[in-house]
Amino acid sequence: MKKFPEGFLWGGATAANQFEGGWNLGGKGWSVSDVARAHFDADVKDYNKHVSITTKDIEEGLAHPEDEVNYPKRHGSDFYHHYKEDIALMAEMGFKTYRMSIAWSRIFPNGDDLEPNEEGLKFYDDVFDELLKYGIEPLVTMSHYEPPLNLVLNYDGWYSREVIGFFTRFVETICTRYKNKVKYWLTFNEVDSMIRHPYTTGGLVEDRFEGKNFEEVIFQAMHHQFVASALATKICHEIVPDSKVGCMLTKLTYYPYTCKPEDVLAAQQKMRSTYAYSDTQVFGEYPAYLLSYFKNNNINIVKEADDDRIMKEYPVDFISFSYYMSSCEAADKTGLDVTPGNTILAVKNPYLETSQWGWQIDPLGLRISLVELYDRYRKPLFIVENGLGARDVLTEDKKVHDQYRIEYLKKHFECMLDAIVEDGVELMGYTSWACIDLISESTKQISKRYGYIYVDIDDYGNGTYNRYRKDSFYWYKKVIENNSVDFE
After folding, report:
1. Nearest to residue 218, comparing CAs of 201, 243, 238?
2. What is the 8-class DSSP label of residue 72?
3. What single string gives the DSSP state of each residue in 198-235?
4. Taking the complete model, does pTM exceed 0.85, yes or no?
5. CATH no. for 9-482
6. Active site residue: 20, 216, 385, 441, which one?
7. Each residue of 48-95: pLDDT tens digit?
8. Is 162 annotated in the active site?
9. Which is it for strands 326-329 and 427-433: parallel, antiparallel or unpaired?
10. How far apart are the C-alpha atoms of 30 and 36, rounded to whole Å?
11. In angstroms, rounded to a whole number, what is the distance separating the alpha carbons of residues 418 and 420?
């Protein structure tokens, strides 16, 4: 029987802005996600068009604080009130780790506060204590799609240099508070996503930058996050000496549509547009190809004197990433089918199946991605998001028969094991997205379900919020028990 390495960190992942709820409780302030409206009529083939947020959209959200139907992230799956039950279910599955995020606006409600919110700090104390009671190692994302809204309205988000200082105050606060409870940290979730949804990641609203090159605005905000990430790594290592700090990348894997050299080049260029961000965080400097892009497109990044030194001196310890699907790239896309993926629309691969949301299912692509990343960086890897979004059905006897999810996961796990055993990849662990059903980021729907545990609410927030184990719950439990997918 082929087994995963001893000490492999099996677990699951969620994000506070999609899962936690309690958005206006315990002194929490507004975040960018609290005013992100759902689009229930979104076309599965074009839902990415809804990622742009305007100032008017924000004002509309602020004007309706009572509305949790059109703003479903406000209630999420109500982990705020169910955390003990949820963590007990994770423990029942045998989780070794749980990836979660700390809501910045729960600790510093406005982002620029001088003192933290003690009630928010106490909530995460209670969560970490509950995890550690069961021997579950927290893996904490410092910033996962939820900058405090005040930083958008009064500082223009991460475009402002001041936000670096606000963020490092937050990091110092949580590292100090939880230094005896959290060892594994990630700085920014899918840091590269700034280029695809700048509001969610960076608090950037295009209509607030009239007269400016918005692409330059995005890259300037990205630079500030790179500096902040390096400083966060420094702070974390100083306060928690045995800590490990990772970056987090959206692993978008592109194949050439054909073997024409033009398509190969197009795919290579597309991959560089993904790797630019992890290259910067791992090597501590901008890659030459990104600097060339800045020069060729008249993008001028304003730096302070120590920025390059800070980035170089405090690179990340490991690379974590999300992987859901792969796509193709072609020099000429005329007449080619496109299909959605994780925050993208891309050329469809005719050799792959697709999920109900149009995402291409490619387990072998995960092995390819692991090899590419490990060959490129020679640092430990951690898969912190992977899973199948599907329309699960709760039967009358409160069961969910999700054999399709089990088959999806089994194939991906087999490819992970091949990458470890056959290709020599150093893989720390795996946290599936999302271990418990939550509000999907792309569509703001809970009907796009990922979990091993069903949460009884619909897209409009109706339901009991009761939790029910799916068939995949019991299967994943066996995987963890055996540290293998080869069991009877």
Report:
1. 201
2. G
3. HHHHH---GGGSTTS-HHHHHHHHHHHHHHHHHHHHHH
4. yes
5. 3.20.20.80
6. 385
7. 555 679 999 999 999 999 999 999 999 999 999 999 999 999 999 999
8. no
9. unpaired
10. 11
11. 5
